[in-house]
User: Fold these one by one.
Assistant:
Number 1:
Amino acid sequence: MLYTIYVAICVASMNPTQCDRHTAVDWIPAPEQAEGLSMCAQTGYEFAAESNLVRAGTYPKIFCSVGGGAPRPDNLT
C-alpha cells in the first residue's frame, strides 16, 4: 500500500502529541510516496534531514496518509 508522507515541523516546546498540521510551524509534503508504513516513517525522517527542514528549536513529526489524497484525521498514521 502506498503512503503519502507529510513532515510537520514543530517547536521544541510543543508536546509531540499536540503537534499536527494545525499547530506545526510548517507542514511539508514529501516529494515521493512510500511503500508501507515503516518505509513512510523512514523516508519522512530522511527527507526532513536531507532538506534541512529542522532548525534549532524545532523537531520533525512524520505523518503517513494512505493513498495520495489530502490528509484527513481518519487516514493519517
Number 2:
Amino acid sequence: MTETERRLHATIAAHESWANTPDRTARTAPARAALDQKFLDQAGGDAVRAAHLRKAHFARLALKSAQARRKARELSIDAETAERELAEAGGLDAASRTRKPPGG
C-alpha cells in the first residue's frame, strides 16, 4: 500500500468513525479534560494562571496559523509571478497558463 493509499484509508476510517458517533461532545470530553488538567498542573493548581496558560497556548496556535497562511500566500504569489514571467518569455503553453491553482 502506498503512503497516499494509507492516508486515504485513514481519512475514510476517521470520517466513518465520526459519522457513527452520536455524541461528539462526549467523545472528546476526556481529551478536553486532560488538556485542562495539563494547564492546571503547569499553573500549580492556580485556576487563574491555568486560564492564562490556556489562552497563551491558543494564541500561539493562532500566531502559527497566521504565519503559515501568510507564507502560503507569499509562495503562491511568487509562483504566479514566476509562471507569468515564464509565459511572457514564451516558456509555457496555453494549457498551463490557464490551469487553476490548488484549491481554486
Number 3:
Amino acid sequence: MNDRLRSMLGLAILLLITFGSASAQTLEITDGKETLVLDRALLESFPQSVIETTSPYYDGTAEFSGPTLARVIEHFGSTGASEVTLVALNGYKVSGSMKELMSLDAIVSTRQNGEPMSIRQRGPYWIMLPLSERPELDSEDFHRYMVWQLNRIELTQE
C-alpha cells in the first residue's frame, strides 16, 4: 500500500471514530413530530441531582449525578405526553406511563463517582433510581426502567 493511500485510510478511520463517537454522546427526545438533540454539556448545564445508591448492576455503592428525568422532559416542552419510552443504544426499550416515571425520582445520570461515563461503563447516560433511599423501587418492576446507554426518549399520547 503506498503512503498516500495509507494516509487517506488513516484519515478516514480517524473521521469515523471522531464522528461516530460524537453521535453516541447525544440524547434525542422526540414526540414523533419534533426531535430535540441534547449533548452532555447541555445536560450538565441543568440543575444536577445526586443519587448515592447500591444496584444489582455493580458491586458496592456508587454516586450518580445528572439532571432529573422530569427536568429533561420539561426542557423538551411536551406537556401532553402520557407515555414515555426509554431506548438504549442496543435497541432495548421500555415504556411506562408519564405519571409512574415522574414518581420514581429518576435522574439521567451523566457521571458515576464524579467521572463521565463511557459506553463501556454503561454510559454515556444511564437512568438511575434512588434504590437505597427508596427500597420499594429495588425490584424487577422498577429495575427495567434503569436503562443504560440511553440514547433516546420517546414521548407519546395514548
Number 4:
Amino acid sequence: MKIIRMSEIKGELNKKGFLTKTLVRNSNVAVRNIILNPGEVIKPHSVEVDVFFYVVKGEGTIIIGKDESSVIEGDIVICPPNTAMSVKANQNQEFSFLNVKTPSL
C-alpha cells in the first residue's frame, strides 16, 4: 500500500503557469492537484482522454463544452475525450482540485 499526502508533495508551476502537484502518474492514469489563486483561469483546451475533476477546496466554475457550472468542495465533474474544458477560481479564494486523466497522457 502507498499513501500519498498531498500536503507533503511539493508543487511546481506547470507549462501553463499553474501550481501543480503530480500525485500519481503511470500508463493508466495521471492524477494532479492543481491550485489556482483567486480569479485565475485555465483557458479552454481539450485532450484525447477521459478527464474528471474533484474539488478539494474552495469554489470555482468549470466549463465542459458549452455547459458551465459553479462547483464547491466535494463536487466531481466529468469531461469526455476531445471536449473543451476550462476552470476558473472565484475571486475571493484559492481553488484546489484534482485533475484525473485516464489513460495518462
